[in-house]
Specification:
Layout: E1 5-7, E2 19-23, E3 26-30, E4 39-45, E5 52-58, E6 77-84, E7 87-94, E8 98-104, E9 115-119, E10 123-130, E11 137-143, H1 145-148, E12 153-159, E13 171-175, E14 189-193, E15 196-203, E16 210-216, E17 224-229, E18 240-246, E19 252-259, E20 265-274, E21 280-282, E22 291-293, E23 321-322, E24 331-332, E25 339-342, E26 344-346, E27 359-362, E28 368-376, E29 384-390, E30 394-401, E31 407-414, E32 422-423, E33 428-429, E34 434-441, E35 446-452, E36 458-465, E37 475-483, E38 491-501
Parallel strand pairs: 26-37
Antiparallel strand pairs: 1-22, 2-3, 3-4, 4-5, 6-7, 7-8, 8-9, 10-11, 11-12, 12-13, 14-15, 15-16, 16-17, 18-19, 19-20, 20-21, 23-27, 24-25, 25-38, 27-37, 28-34, 28-38, 29-30, 29-37, 30-31, 31-32, 31-33, 34-35, 35-36
């Protein structure tokens, strides 16, 4: 990469199902957040290459009791971000509830509470369009077969201009079962351009698919289709599902994801132009680019979503999300630095995958080292706290209070099919109740754990390879737990969380 070029991915972590909009000289992006809280992350850029996380549009998932426990494959699927009538709008599908929307006068809020636009099972990937030419409003969505028994088709509706309800029963406007070779059509994004209604929509599955474009003179069709981005002979598999955006100077660009196993869905930026036949051309004549000339936008300093955290006043940065709706008292604010997590009592303390009180952030997509200092302040036998790599399988390293009052450095893991964790190495005494925890994450998301309890760094256990959840990349997590019982079980304090790239 030079000052004139950029290298993909521009967001090298799991910013799944991105959508993008420009307002003035600013670009904004949101992404799926599934069952984590807060949800609907909001990113900002001035050059489409350097992005920062500026907040979230969804403080808690609703209904709250449905997301009091982890629901890693549910919640917020594939949102669409739009700007209309001097407001930001986000529509998304919850596959178990229906189509929701929130809106706000500024990207940082305040955002409204979720409003259910259309109730139903399997309604996913909605996208609105306010047609400035006619004053009409429309919405298109896809289907999740796991909930509805239907997939590979897009349904269109007329929508109330205030985005509050749909005005008809809907009509299938694209049936990809009728298109030879197409399957799993989903993730539509709806636009108006050059007198046509355009739907940009992926098909073929997240790991092996392609990006399609559809156009029609009328919203309800008929639509003609074309594949506009596919892997071809590149190393970028499944390049699809994202959004088109135009710069102030008239350049067109397309942001999409690539599925990368434990790293989740990383975000690429593709050049886009309109061909002589009126169809969009993405990437290098339909193949994804890895290095390309930067957009014609003012130069910006390098930036990326924050990862490091000193937890000033006990507060955690906006890069962190809980694995479910949080409860009061999990994290305690105080006068100094450091994250003070309550040792939450749980009958599921043996399985981090079942716990809502794990504070997580995305696993970086490039080799790095993750470090944090931990002090276990709990006197409760069995209380524990640590640093985890969390997915369908998980591994963690941390401290645990023994029945005899001593504190041990412990390292544990659980396979995908395992119902509870096992020791990954022999426990060691941590006489001061403190440890510096470290995970070196190498190629292929292979994780090497180590620690320092005052005697210098020591490796721990075998290499652990991170795994994704069903739709979500692996997560880094901080947690504090205690066995089921009565009364307050104390706390643990984390300081100086750092991610250093190789």
């Amino acid at each position: 990469m030079t000052a004139e070029t950029y290298t993909n991915p521009v967001l090298d972590a799991d910013w799944s199902d991105p959508d993008v909009v420009r307002v003035g000289d600013d670009f904004y992006l949101t992404a799926s957040s599934f069952g984590r809280a807060p949800g609907l992350p909001l990113l900002h850029s001035r050059d489409l290459v350097n992005w920062t996380l500026v907040g979230h549009a969804l403080e808690r998932l609703e209904p709250a009791d449905e997301f009091a426990a982890p629901r890693h494959d549910r919640g917020v699927w594939a949102p669409s971000l739009r700007y209309h009538d001097d407001r930001f709008w986000i529509f998304w599908g919850d596959p178990d509830q229906g189509v929701f929307q929130v809106h706000a006068p500024e990207i940082r809020g305040p955002w409204t509470r979720p409003h259910l636009v259309k109730e139903g099972k399997g309604l996913i990937d909605p996208c609105p369009l306010w047609d400035d030419e006619t004053g009409e409003a429309y919405l298109v969505h896809a289907w999740a077969k796991s909930r509805s028994g239907v997939k590979n088709r897009l349904t269109g509706h007329r929508m109330h201009p205030e985005g509050t309800e749909l005005l008809d029963e809907g009509k299938v406007i694209v049936d990809a079962d009728r298109i030879p070779g197409w399957f799993t059509l989903e993730g539509p994004k709806l636009y108006r351009h050059d007198g046509w209604f355009w739907i940009f929509a992926p098909a073929g599955g997240v790991e092996t698919g392609w990006q399609g474009a559809f156009r029609s003179r009328g919203f309800f069709g008929p639509y003609e289709e074309r594949i506009v981005l596919e892997q071809k002979d590149t190393g970028v598999n499944g390049p699809h599902q994202g959004g088109w955006v135009r710069t102030p100077s008239g350049e067109d660009w397309f942001l999409h994801f690539q599925q990368r196993g434990a790293y989740g869905r990383v975000v690429h930026l593709q050049p886009m132009r309109w061909g002589a036949d009126g169809w969009p051309v993405l990437g290098d004549d339909g193949a994804p680019v890895l290095v390309h000339r930067r957009p014609d936008l003012p130069s910006q300093p390098p930036a990326a979503p924050a990862t490091d955290d000193d937890f000033p006043g006990g507060r955690y940065g906006r890069q962190w999300q809980w694995t479910a709706n949080p409860s009061d008292g999990w994290a305690t604010q105080h006068s100094g630095d450091g994250l003070r997590l309550t040792c939450v009592r749980s009958a599921d303390a043996h399985d981090l995958r079942k716990l809502p009180n794990v504070l997580t952030q995305r696993l970086p997509g490039a080799p790095c080292t993750v470090e944090v200092d931990l002090r276990l302040d709990s006197e409760e036998p069995g209380a524990r706290a640590g640093l985890a790599v969390l997915g369908d399988a998980f591994g963690w390293i941390g401290l645990q209070r023994g029945a005899d009052g001593t504190v041990h450095l412990v390292h544990r893991f659980a396979e995908t099919v395992a119902e509870r964790e096992r020791d990954a190495d022999h426990p060691r005494l941590a006489p001061d109740g403190r440890a510096r925890l470290r995970i070196e994450i190498g190629a292929g998301a292979r994780c090497r754990f180590s620690f320092d309890v005052g005697e210098g760094p020591r490796p721990s256990g075998p290499v652990f390879t991170a795994t994704p959840w069903r739709w979500v990349g692996a997560l880094l997590g901080l947690f504090a737990l205690a066995p089921a019982g009565q009364g307050h079980a104390g706390a643990a304090t984390f300081t100086q969380f750092r991610i250093t790239h190789a």
